[in-house]
Amino acid sequence: MPVMTTKIEGRGNGIKTVIPNMDEVAKALSRLPTYPTKFFGIELGAQTTMANDRYIVNGAHQADRLRELLDVFIEKFVLCPSCKNPETVLLVNEKKEEITRDCKACGAQTMLDMRHKLTTYILKNPPAGSTGKKGKKGSKGAADAGAPKKDKYAEAEELREAQLAGTNLPTIGGGTASPANGNGAAAEEDDDDVAKGFNNPAVANRKLTDDDWAVDTSAEAVAARMKNLAVNVDGFAGGLGDEDDDGEGAGDTKYTAFGAWIEENKEDATDAEIAAKAKEMEVWGKHKACIELGQKLWRDDLVKDVEKRVKILGVMTTNEKAQKSLLGGIEKYFGNDHPELIPQLPKILMALYQADVLEEEVITTWGTHVSKKYVDKETSKKVRKSAEPFLKWLEEADESDDDDEDDE
After folding, report:
1. Contact, 78 vs 29, CB < 8 A?
2. Domain 231-407 adopts which CATH fold?
3. Within 10 A of 373 (CB to CB), how many other CB atoms are there?
């Protein structure tokens, strides 16, 4: 089994732990990748997302902790209690609501602990060919009645291979799903298919229940979630979107008006009032609003301003596009409005980085790519030149981390 790897993404309430190689880990265990992922969520009390071959546990979780939980999962749901061999397959009896491990090494069949919450999920989402339903007289299963009886171990091996291959995986609401997905959920239509009215029966007939942990990623479901998503800033709650749905150059007037309001009220306005004004002007959750924040939010002491405004900055820069826009506004502030303050740029970048407003990759990419999107090219070069002390510090910190890992 490969060593399970993790990657922490996002920040604040949106922070999550991604498991990039969950497919490979699960395949080595002859289990669907949704099973260990769901197990992590149950044990950690966290929500999980399992769609489009991405396996995510909400919150920041260290790799060592998840590996410990994986060992527990293997002990409870993989290893044969009799011989401790991991080469087992799950047999699901939906009628009796029982799940047993069939060991192809010693032939023992042992029941799982049905008190664990994961067994409920497995019953609803059994692996391929695991239900073992026998055909009744006159039914489709009767066609095999005259066939030679297979050796028990051969049957177990075939079942294991089928589960590894992920063929004919059951959907959440019945039927079968595409093996390309490999996560027990029906394949979703892409945007073009939706636009053309393409209808996938496996998706259309699927029924989600409160116990299902798979996330519906259809365009309609995403739109509904975004509509209901709320961000609380000092008592203010408002929907936060990830994208600017204005066309190129459209709606610039409202952003200019928002920036003018920020500049006029930055001394006394609270974060909640800024958020409320952004909502009122229909720029809340739009990346272009971050340009105005980056250019108009600052007063005399920029580092203290970051400390004061870390909450509103954090909730309005939840994606890479918004962070780039904030840096664009900062370029305009130092490059065009206050070139005399440009020596302070490394300090404000450090403050924004340490406050988790800006991610390292975004800052590094910005620092190495001169652009004339927000200021002229020469000014852009000058701004990035002044940021070199901080960019060098970031690079050296990375090299130091790499050296520490090598020493270990």
Report:
1. yes
2. 1.25.40
3. 10
The Cα 309–Cα 243 span in angstroms is: 22
Which tokens in the block code for residue 293?
């924040």
Lowest mean pLDDT among 23-27, 94-98, 314-318: 94-98
Give dist(CA 361, CA 8) in Å, integer: 13
Q: What is d(CA 341, CA 337) in angstroms, rounded to the nearest whole number? A: 9
Instruction: Answer with the residue of higher pLDDT: 252 or 406.
Output: 252
| Range list for CATH 3.30.30.170 in the chain | 7-204
Q: Report helix, strand or coil for 397.
A: helix
- Tokens, residue 116: 């664990």
For 7-16, the pLDDT digits (tens) are 998 887 789 9
Beta-carbon contacts of residue 242 (< 8 Å; ≥ 6 apart): 226, 285, 318, 319, 321
pLDDT in tens, 29-67: 989 999 999 999 999 998 888 877 889 999 999 889 999
Strand bridging mode 48-51 / 54-58: antiparallel
Domain 7-204 carries which CATH code? 3.30.30.170
Measure CA of the first residue to CA of the last residue in the chain; give whole Å.
22
Assigned token pair, 201: 């029966």
